[in-house]
Amino acid sequence: MDKALLVGCATEATETDIRSSLDELAHLADAVGITAVEHIIQRAKTISAATYVGRGKVDEIKSAITALDIDIVIFDDPLSPAQLKNLEGLLDVQVIDRSFLIMSIFAIRAQTAEAVLEVDLAQKTYMLPRLVGMRASLSRQGGGSYNAKGPGETKLELDRRKLQKEISLIKQRLEKIRKDKATARKQRERNRIPVVALVGYTNAGKSSLMNSLARALTHDSDPVFEKDMLFATLDTKSKKLQKDNMPPFILIDTVGFVSKLPHELVRSFETTLSDVIIADLILLVSDGTDPDNSRIETTKEVLKSIGADKVERILVLTKQDLRDAHRHVDDDAILVSNKTGENIDTLVNAIYGHLYKDSRIQSLVIPFDDGAIYSSIKDTTTVLETSYEADGIHLRAVLTPEQAILYRKWMIS
Ligand SMILES: Nc1nc2c(ncn2[C@@H]2O[C@H](COP(=O)(O)OP(=O)(O)OP(=O)(O)O)[C@@H](O)[C@H]2O)c(=O)[nH]1
Ligand SMILES: [Mg+2]
């Protein structure tokens, strides 16, 4: 295992912020097999354009590297190409930043062709301006570090022109995959099945919630992958779910967020995330055992940055079966457990409430010779009750405002 020294900067962040950020950085490092053994916090007012931290800190880091036998230094904020190059030169060990680390985890986790290409694109876009620093780092390490690994363990190309060529090739291939996806989405829009997106911090329980909802609604036998690790899900999965006697909706699982998500990644995952923008409803999933609200805030910020802040939301707090779950984040939050199924039915009702909040249950009488109207109501609305009476078919159905106008002739109060 590589031994790492973490470096954070507390210019604006509070002391608690920087500590929880470094804790998370240690977890991220752990996900790629690096052990964080020590951290150093810079408390200066400004960040050095040349070396991120000040002169004195560079010396402090150098002594720590020798004293603790450090293999790699990880900075909590994105390093500019110049900072990376200078620090590489001064510290004489491998230097990476949080962005690079997150992309490395994505590279390990990516499975579908699309996710592999997306991560590859993000990594290469990130590397292009930083080739000089990285090349120095690799030559020192004999090219043996995980730094040189891309998706599928292929060696990342360090030649600038080749890299540019590869980037445009990846873009072309992604374009093709995305076209196919767009067709599927169009189909969905034509059918006007509402879309509900699961969004939230990594490890919050989104995939587990998708499985709970699928179990509750469809006797689902094909669960999606859920695991206690960072970025378990990289590929958007969707399922068509339906409550008995109610219309269907599409539920999509998405990539988890993390604070300081590299913008290269957000850009690469644009298509995946654009499913969120067109959603009719977002389930903002948050780990109910999380002691502070900063992760919900981070999620909201990412939603804003991808232009999805106008979509209606329901806040869902998971893991209520655990002892340290708290219950006071927000009065409107729905508190669920994916382990015991607690409140999953409440959530289902809330989802339908949001999707059909302007719909009303109406009573209708359709004369027997209006068979065409009867079948059109059956196909386009949710019929709750049917009975055959002397004057025709009596129905109780859930109608949207538009449908209520369309069928008003047959409605009885
Ligand atoms: N006890 C308990 N554990 C849960 C609950 N929901 C999820 N978990 C666990 O939390 C971990 C993460 O769950 P996932 O569903 O994979 O989380 P995710 O939000 O999809 O995470 P990413 O895909 O990494 O973004 C797993 O180990 C789950 O078993 C819950 O309600 N109760
Ligand atoms: Mg997941």
Structure described in brief:
The chain has 14 helices and 14 strands.
Walk me through the topology.
Elements: E1 2-9, H1 15-31, E2 34-42, H2 55-68, E3 72-75, H3 81-91, E4 94-97, H4 98-109, H5 113-127, H6 131-141, H7 160-191, E5 195-200, H8 206-218, E6 238-242, E7 248-252, H9 263-268, H10 270-277, E8 281-287, H11 294-305, E9 313-318, E10 334-335, H12 344-355, E11 360-366, H13 371-380, E12 382-389, E13 392-399, H14 401-406, E14 411-412
Parallel strand pairs: 1-2, 1-3, 3-4, 5-7, 5-8, 8-9, 9-10
Antiparallel strand pairs: 6-7, 11-13, 11-14, 12-13
Describe what you observe in this structure:
The protein is of the alpha/beta class. It folds into three domains: 2-164, GTPase HflX, N-terminal domain (Rossmann fold, 3-Layer(aba) Sandwich); 192-355, 3-Layer(aba) Sandwich (Rossmann fold), CATH 3.40.50; 360-412, Alpha-Beta Plaits, CATH 3.30.70.240. It contains 14 helices and 14 strands. It has helices at 15-31, 55-68, 81-91, 98-109, 113-127, 131-141, 160-191, 206-218, 263-268, 270-277, 294-305, 344-355, 371-380, 401-406; strands at 2-9, 34-42, 72-75, 94-97, 195-200, 238-242, 248-252, 281-287, 313-318, 334-335, 360-366, 382-389, 392-399, 411-412. Helix 1 packs parallel to helix 4 (98-109). The structure holds guanosine-5'-triphosphate and magnesium ion. Guanosine-5'-triphosphate binds at residues 200, 202-208, 226-228, 230-233, 256, 318-319, 321-322, 337-339. Residues 206-207, 226, 232-233, 253 line the site of magnesium ion (MG).
